[in-house]
Structure formats: C-alpha cells, structure tokens
Amino acid sequence: MRLTVAQAVVRFLARQWSERDGVERRFFGGCVGIFGHGNVAGIGQALATANEAAGETGDELPYLLSRNEQAMVHTAAGYARASNRLATLACTTSIGPGATNMVTGAAGATINRLPVLLLPGDLFSTRVAGPLLQELEDQRSYDISVNDCLKPVSRFWDRINRPEQLPSALLAAMRVLTDPAETGAVTLALPQDVQAEAYDWPEELFARRVWHVPRPRPERAALERAAERLRAAERPLIVAGGGALYSEATGELRAFAERFGVPVAETQAGKGALPHGHPLAVGAIGATGTTAANALAREADVVIGVGTRYSDFTTASRTLFAPDAAFVNINVTGFDAAKLSGLQLVADAREGLAELAGALAGWSAPPALRERAGELTREWDAAVDAAFALEGTPPSQAAVIGAVNAAAGADGVVVCAAGSMPGDLHKLWRPSGPGSYHVEYGYSCMGYEIAGGLGVKLAAPEREVFVLVGDGSYLMMAQELVTAVAEGVKLTVVLVDNSGFASIGRLSESVGARRLGTAYTAGDGGPLPVDLAANAASLGAAVVRAETVADLRKALDAARAGDVTTVIHVRTDRLADDVPSSRAWWDVPVAQVGTPEAVREEYAAGKRAQHLHLAPPG
Ligand SMILES: Cc1ncc(C[n+]2csc(CCOP(=O)(O)OP(=O)(O)O)c2C)c(N)n1
Ligand SMILES: [Mg+2]
Predict the structure, then answer these.
(1) Nearest to 29 by CA among 86, 70, 88, 76
(2) 489 C-alpha to center of ligand 2: Å?
(3) Which of 76, 291, 299, 559 is the most buried (most CB within 10 A)?
(4) CA-to-CA distance for 316 and 295, rounded, in angstroms?
(5) pLDDT in tens, 198-241
(6) What are phi and psi of 527, to 5 degrees?
(7) HSE-CB of 616 using CA atoms within 13 angstroms
(8) Within 13 Å and on the Cβ side, how many CA atoms surround 4?
(9) CB of 580 within 8 A of CB of 293?
C-alpha cells in the first residue's frame, strides 16, 4: 500500500486496540497537536486526509487542537490515567520549541507510569537545507537534534530516518505503551522530509492489532515466602498505590482487606481504591496522610504494598515505618517490588492479591486491629468534619475542598497537581471510589490541572470533572480553557486565588528562607492589579466570583447542572493553615549556615528518624 510515512503512522495508530479481561478498546482515542513546518505536510496532511481512509476501514483518529505542547502531553496523560492505562492520545508537534515543550509533560507521564505517544517533528534527514529555522546546531555532530532531550524522559525513543525503519519502531512503541511494567512516554521522532516520503508498505502493518495487556501472576515460591511472613503478622497494613487502580484490583483489595481484617491506607495515586466510609479504609498515608493511617503505619509489623512506588511522600521520607517493619510488595515491576528491601511479588495487583489471599486461607489479623483502625479513623473524620465546617470570609481552603467534595458526589472526579491543595486533598477528600480522585503527584507539575482535567473529561465524558487550581498553576497554564471551550468539553474549574504560593511560602518559612518570592504582590507589598476571573472570562469560560463558602456551593451546583466550562474564582488567605496535621515529616534540606538553630535542630531530628530499611526481606 503506497502511503507517506505520516499516513502510515496515522493509519497504524487508528488500528491499534488494547485488551484486558476480554474487553477490547481502541488504544488511541485521538491525536492532539499543534502544527508547524515540522509536521504540517506530514502528520498534518495525513490526519486531514485520514477521514477518507476511515471511511474504508471504520477507523478514525480524531484530531484535537491544543494550545501548548506541554499541556497536550498532560492531556494525554490525564486521558491515560482515567482509562486505567488501556488507552491514550498521540501528540504531534513541529520541530524545535514545539517538540521541547513536550519534555516536561513526558517526564510527568513517565514518572507517573502513564502511556503517552509523542510524535515530534525532526530535522530533514537529508540535511540539504540546513541549518533550519529552529535547528539546534551542534558543532560536534550533525546527528543531534533537540528531540534528543526526550530520551531520558521516554521509555522508548527512536528516530525514523528511513521509511523501512517505521514498522519495527511502531511495534516496539506499542509494546512499551501497553506493557504495564514498562509504560511511560514513548517518542518517535519524525524528520519532516521522511514524514512526507512515500513508500510501499506491507498490508499486514495496518491489520487491526490487539495488544493484550498482561496480568502477570506471582511466582509460587515468592508467594509462599510472602504468605509465611504474613501469617506471623500482628499489625499488618496495606498501602494501596496507583497500581491497585490501574489494574482494576479494587474489588480484590476490598475482599482481601475484609477477609483478613487488614486496614488499607492510600497513596496519592492510590486514593479512591476504597471508598471513604469503608470500615477498613484509613485514608491517605505519609507526609500528607491521615493521623489514622500514619499511626497504623508506625505500628505496622508487615506492610503490604500494592502497586506503590513508595515515594518520599508515602514513606514520610523514610521516617514513617518502624525500622524493623517487613514489606511484602505486589508490583508489576521488579524495580518497585524490591523497594524497602521488600519480599517481591512481581505481579499484577489483582492477580497478586487474589493469589496471596489463596495462600493465606485460614489466617486473619487480630480483631483488635480492625477496632483500632475504626477508632483512629473516627477521630480523623471528626477533625475533617470540623475543617470542612469552617465558615468565614475569605473561605478556608478546607472549606473550599469540602464544598467541592460535596458537589462532586458519586460521579465527580477531582483533578489537581501542585501547590498546597494536593496535600490538603490527600488528607481531606472523601473519595466515592475508583477514578474519583485524580491528583498528579508524581511530578506535581504546575499547569497539569486544566490540561489534565481536559484529558480526564475526554476519557470519561460521563463524569463531572472538577479541577482545583491555584493561582500560581493557573498563571502557568490557563490556556487549555480555550481548548475546552472550543471542543465543548465541560470542565468546572475552581480557581483558588491566594495571591501567591501558600505551599512554598509555608515551606520557605519552615526552612528559614523567609517566604522570599512566594507572594504575588506589588513592590510595596500591596495587591497587584491582576484579575484572574476576568482572565478566565476572556478565554471563553463562564465565570462566577464566589466570595463566601455559600457562594461557592451555589456556584458549584449551577456549574454542575449546566453544560459549559465554568471557572469559579474564590479568594483565600495565603497565610492561613487550618487543615489538621498529618504528624509526619518531609525531608527538605535546611541551610547549615545562617538559619535559626531551632530550624536546624528540627531538621536534624527528622534525619535521625530516617530508616533505610536494609534488613534482608523475611
Ligand atoms: C512547573 C513547576 N514549577 C515549580 C514548582 C514548585 N512549586 C510547587 S507548588 C508551587 C506554588 C504553587 O502556587 P499555587 O498554584 O498558587 O498554589 P498554592 O501553593 O498557593 O496553593 C511551586 C512554585 C512545581 N511544582 N511545578
Ligand atoms: Mg496560590
């Protein structure tokens, strides 16, 4: 079949499917992009004419125009996460700045283990016309382009210099994207001349192809070791991470917890694995955890990690778990399963839990553990009730979160990424179940919020998407509001404007850095003549200014009932901090010279409490 390289790419992508548990779905929900000279005649022309091809085959790759290349990778990552990694979007860019704009988004996707396919344009492979507009000339080599920046943030990276190289690269890309143990950003750099070059392709390249997403089962001997260790446990705790959700293991998780009486704590990525109110759900764990989960973590003798990569926020920078705690880690990658010297159950979360349950028949944790979990959780819930009920103007951040939580109901999703809100959300938000909580806290990338929320809504149009975004993040990336408006993709955005960085301001003060550069104020410390609500209106969103919590509740109900993208602007106090403490630490170094002794002492105490967890497993 005679097609250009770009036409072949588009045709191939439209025919890729994923399958798990017998359910097949299209792997690429579409292609999001921004055109320039590096892709307009290649991928651009191919997408423009693809509808004809779609007429023949019934396959489509809808195109969506983004406003910023970093944002479009966030959109793809949000889409992938909301699809439990069984589908994503492709991203096409021009050469040069359009391509490098994707580096941050790619890092975010790879860190969060989410599949995204990046198709940056690249320099002419013939090199005749160079140096090109936007070409990085490297005096040591002509074989370098800015796309090489995408190598360390990609799980697979290739440059297609000849049409003949394309089939194997496409297959390798698909293998990595659909392998839960390897997935992340995948880059196929496409030189602009090669994109437009014609070639005679074998028909089989475009056959409908189904990628079976595996559910690897744990090794028998490893299972026996894990079961033996658990049978001796008296105070076990489950830590549910993102893998529990991606694997759709929440039914098995609940059954496991109930059958053996083991409480379940959740990381940022794992939050929602059990709904709030389940008697064994103890909520968030770690530096932004609940006092319930953190107390149980400190007391735990065996920790069962399910699909967690044990980030510093989860382990409270390795101060949370007892030095002699044992870890049994169910993870699809050996890399994560081996963490904290754990007994490794390299397996899909659902299969791992089911098989571990089988191996534990007859055992259960002491009933007192269940009671203690209930008591601790009731205490925490009461503290959250009080925080949610705080009235006052400007509203407290806890009250804002409580209002959004109430509006989100059973079908809502909250989306957030950076600032003071992810930590507060982790502690306070009461998830209705899997998929209801979407906080990007692997990269915690300012700007993810609206762009990622767009991806969530595209993947799950039946859900109401509530984006919580700080003024700092908003100022970095508000432009995807325009994409939401243009595409008719409804988002409800709550813009929490506290004139600066509440998060970093607080952190700055705690390390003796005096809140330098954390306030958006005029030279004299007074307010700036900046109106972010007017800004949102200018981008096409319906805008409501909420002064009080009551205003906010009303605006949320109206936004929920309507069908347009709405930005609700609410002012809060940057210096207020009325969210209950996690009683856990986060390691951020303090200057050894020039900071108050009390600050250095507190830091030294934290360092003394860190454990490496080096004891051999078992
Ligand atoms: C792209 C990016 N740059 C810098 C940071 C570091 N950082 C984390 S939170 C934050 C401030 C966020 O401000 P805002 O969105 O207003 O949230 P607030 O802290 O006020 O709640 C900064 C600068 C980051 N996470 N991402
Ligand atoms: Mg702010």
Answers:
(1) 88
(2) 25
(3) 76
(4) 12
(5) 999 999 999 999 999 999 999 999 999 999 999 999 999 999 99
(6) -70, 155
(7) 1
(8) 21
(9) no
